[in-house]
């Protein structure tokens, strides 16, 4: 939750370093992180291992915080499950006293995603508005956008969305957040924005919480700067081969 702002454990630091090595050849243009300490430390560890953007500024945003669990924060997961059972509800959808509802979490995710889309559109407009200036991606080495998990995707997914080594992106944004929050964000992508999913993804995988430092990759296309109809493709979900 939000109320117990603990640092990463020794295991957490090892996982964050592993994620950093996994993503070390990906050149990010922006990095956003939850302002909770464990996410800040994870973002720092990832950038610390990166070949291209060790000095990239991390922007901290409270909209990326974990779901607020109220009276259940700081207590074992078994306690939360017991509370849900006593209330006659399933654990994922149960809201403890003082906690956030799933709709409230999704609203935070929606607000932040729309902010990212606006950022991307403004970047493109800014680049195109410079007389004689090359595009943001002109001359960028393709290898800087190589994603290490492309071998986990089907050939059709790679060719149709261009997520292989030749990908040239206007923005390549790293977002570091939390498990329950990200599950809600992905739910928003799927149910509200009709995100295209990998063909082999099961319903249980879609609804599961990411493992610590699990990596998900989404390609967002805003045709003609249209913020109302983003085309979203999930390349991979909760990738954990680095762990």
TrEMBL record:
InterPro entries: His_Pase_superF_clade-1, His_PPase_superfam, Phosphoglycerate_Mutase. One of its GO terms (molecular function) is fructose-2,6-bisphosphate 2-phosphatase activity. Keywords: Hydrolase. The keyword Hydrolase applies. Gene3D superfamilies: Phosphoglycerate mutase-like. SUPFAM superfamilies: Phosphoglycerate mutase-like (SSF53254). Substrate binds at residues 38, 66-69. Transmembrane segments: none annotated. GO terms for cellular component: cytosol. GO terms for biological process: negative regulation of glycolytic process; regulation of pentose-phosphate shunt. This is TIGAR bisphosphatase.
């Amino acid at each position: 939750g939000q109320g117990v702002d603990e640092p990463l454990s020794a295991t957490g630091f090892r996982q964050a370093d592993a994620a950093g090595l996994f993503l070390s050849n990906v050149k990010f243009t922006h990095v956003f992180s939850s302002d909770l300490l464990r996410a800040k430390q994870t973002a720092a560890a990832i950038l610390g291992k990166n070949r291209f953007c060790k000095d990239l500024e991390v922007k901290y945003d409270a909209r990326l915080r974990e779901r607020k669990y109220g009276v259940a924060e700081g207590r074992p997961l078994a306690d939360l499950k017991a509370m849900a059972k006593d209330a006659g509800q399933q654990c994922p959808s149960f809201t403890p006293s003082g906690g956030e509802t799933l709709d409230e979490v999704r609203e935070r995710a929606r607000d932040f995603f729309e902010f990212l889309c606006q950022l991307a559109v403004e970047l493109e407009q800014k680049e195109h508005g410079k007389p004689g200036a090359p595009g943001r991606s002109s001359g960028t080495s393709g290898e800087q956008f190589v994603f290490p998990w492309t071998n986990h995707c089907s050939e059709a997914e790679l060719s149709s969305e261009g997520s292989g080594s030749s990908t040239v992106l206007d923005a390549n944004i790293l977002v570091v957040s939390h498990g329950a929050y990200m599950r809600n964000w992905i739910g928003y992508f799927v149910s509200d924005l009709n995100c295209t999913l990998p063909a082999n993804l099961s319903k249980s995988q879609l609804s599961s919480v990411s493992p610590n430092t699990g990596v998900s990759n989404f390609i967002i296309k805003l045709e003609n700067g249209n913020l109302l109809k983003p085309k979203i493709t999930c390349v991979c979900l909760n990738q954990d081969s680095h762990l």
